[in-house]
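Lab channel / #folding
Pinned by the channel admin:
"Please post every new chain as: sequence first, then the structure tokens as a reply. Keep commentary short and put observations after the output so the thread stays searchable."

First post following the new format, from NK:
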Amino acid sequence: QVQLVESGGGPVQAGGSLTLSCAASGNTYRTYCMAWVRQAPGKERETVATIATDGGPAYYADSVKGRFTISQDNAKNTLYLQMNSLKPEDTAMYYCAAKGGFCALAPRWYNIWGQGTQVTVSS
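Reply from TO:
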């Protein structure tokens, strides 16, 4: 099993940038789909971006396309989310998630989750 630990969240003003990190440990030699999923208060979880650990195109939600970039450093077993041009509506708890096999859009398919890191964007 893989364990995930996120970091890098915090307060930021609108228009600013943050980079989230997700350190993976444990059974990392398998192929996984890695995702960043966010949840704002009172809202359902939203898959923001996904990427497969063995390569392939990344997926982005329309709400973040062109502003967020998902990437990974396999040597460090670390997933990143570079967030630029942040908006107040990006305020949420951001979770790193993983699943075996192919990538999926719906958060319910991910069975490995980190504890989350809070991002708060002020106007």
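NK: The chain has no helices and eleven strands.
TO: also worth noting, The CA atoms of residues 68 and 83 lie 4 Å apart.
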